[in-house]
Each structure stands twice: as C-alpha cells, then as structure tokens.
Write a structure and sequence with these properties.
Blueprint lengths: L8 H4 L2 H4 L3 H13 L5 E2 L2 H8 L3 H9 L3 E3 L5 E3 L2 H4 L13 H5 L1 E3 L5 E3 L37 H15 L17 H13 L1 H12 L17 H4 L5 H5 L24 H12 L5
Antiparallel strand pairs: 1-3, 2-3, 4-5
C-alpha cells in the first residue's frame, strides 16, 4: 500500500470544507492519511478517539458528503480519486470489495452510490433525512450542477446549507443532499429571494442561540427541522425573534400547553406545526 497521500485544492480549499470546524478538517486529513489505496477506512471511530476529535466531527463529514458510509461502519473518502492517482506497481486493492461494488465513479472522479445500493444506512446514530432515490449529490468542482440552477443560486444555497449543517452540534438534524425539484430546495430559494441570503443566515444563527428551537426547554423536542424552517409561514417568525431565548423563563414554563390557548411563544409553535404541514 502506498504510504504517501495527496490532496486536491479544489476540495480542501472550498468554502464547504473551510467552513467546517478545525477539528473536523483535521479528522478529514487523518482519515485520508489512514485510508487504503481505494480510499476506504475500516476503523473511523478508533481514529476519532485516537486524535481527540468527537463523534460530531465524523457526523459532520458524513452530513456534508466528504465521506460516504456503509451500514457496517466502514467509510470511504468521497473525493479520493480526485486526491490520489496511485501507480499500478504500488497499488493494493481494498479488502472492502463488497462495499466498493456498491459505488460508482462519477465523471469528476468522485464516488457515489450505485442506483441499486442507494438505500445504505450510515453509521449508527448518523441520520441523513433524505430520499436517496431522488436526491442528487452536492459535489465539489467547477462543473457542479447539483441543484441545476444558476451559479448565484447554487452559491447562495450552498452557503445556507453549510450554515444549517453547523447546527448539528446543537442536536439539529443536518441536510446532506438536495435535488432541484424538491420542495425543500424550492422553499429555500424562495426565502433567499424574498429576504436575501444574509437574512437567511441570520435566521440560522438565531436557531443556534434558541434553546426552544433546539428542544432544550420543551417536552416536544424533535419537531424542528430544515423543512419546517424554510416554510413561508415559519421562517419570518424565526427571523423576527419569536423563538429567541426569553429572560427569566423557567424550564417548566417553556412546555407547550395542553389547552387550546395560543399565546406568546407557544401559540406560535402550535400554529406553525399546523401551517407547516406537520399536524393535519
């Protein structure tokens, strides 16, 4: 097996990569250095512990599609063949041939799951929250058309998705992939067009500072996600600060009431759950 590894600047110098925490970037480099000649790593969790990173760093790499994972815990570096070109006399085939057979190599040399293997689950407790049979990889490179719209929309949508995925450190489910014909993409573009990308990023920052939206102060945690956030009736309430932390509010008073009263913060959330399609 080759002992030297290379890195493609189109990947590691991208905004998607540099926006990640330094610990996540560090983990990515270590995984690349320890991968076999086909880019597979059989012990990612051990490497996480060895270098002092957290499980959240690995989850973020998976969520942002820098690594692909299999249900047995093995991972593969998605852009491995963009990074490395190993001479045949130094190449040793991976021992993970079954996993390799589940992949295809795209024209830009990045890995993706073959159509008949798109339902593979990630490492336990890593949730993708996507319809893999319809979604398209968010890939890197100058020919990226993962959303199929103008470059401006691609850039703005990427910034918002990258910002949203940083919320995983607060326990909020990340978005790993998105297709141009999906409702969530259309809603995101509509919010960007209506409010501007800076205000969308501002609203995401408000989520990072809201104990209520993170489920820390109510018993109905888990309802808040990206699809709810980009709904036209929900987004302005986040932006306007309706779910900001309130001074002198006890945890007991933050529970959603059981009666039909819809006042203050709780009235908004019941109304939003209905308007957002989460309650019929």
């Amino acid at each position: 097996m080759a002992k030297k590894r290379m890195f493609n600047m189109n990947v590691v110098d991208s905004d998607a990569f540099l926006d990640m925490p330094l610990s996540t970037q560090c983990l990515y480099f270590h995984l690349n250095m320890r991968a076999d000649d086909d880019g597979f790593v059989g012990n990612p969790k051990r490497i996480v512990r060895l270098i002092g990173c957290s499980d959240d760093d690995l989850k973020l790499l998976i969520a942002k599609r820098f690594v692909l994972c299999f249900e047995d815990g093995v991972i593969v570096i998605k852009h491995w063949r963009m990074h490395n070109c190993i001479q045949s006399d130094r190449y040793t085939p991976t021992v993970y041939q079954e996993e390799k057979d589940m992949l295809i190599t795209k024209p830009n040399k990045s890995y993706t799951f073959a159509e008949n293997n798109i339902n593979q689950e990630c490492i336990k407790n890593v949730s993708t929250d996507i319809d893999k049979s319809k979604d398209i990889d968010i890939d890197l490179g100058k020919n990226n058309k993962y959303i199929g719209e103008t470059d401006s929309k691609i850039s703005d949508a990427r910034r918002c998705l990258d910002a949203w995925n940083t919320l995983s450190q607060h326990g909020i489910k990340p978005v790993s992939r998105m297709s141009s014909n999906s409702t969530r993409f259309k809603c995101l573009v509509a919010r960007i067009s209506e409010y501007g990308v800076d205000n969308v990023l501002k609203a995401i920052e408000k989520v990072a500072q809201s104990d209520f939206l993170q489920g820390k102060t109510n018993t109905n945690a888990g309802w808040f996600n990206f699809d709810w956030f980009v709904k036209p009736n929900n987004f302005p309430k986040v932006l306007d600060g309706n779910y900001d932390n309130k001074p002198n509010t006890s945890s007991a008073s933050m529970k959603i009431p059981n009666d039909n009263t819809q006042s203050g913060q709780f009235g908004h959330i019941v109304e939003d759950l209905i308007g957002g399609g989460l309650i019929e």
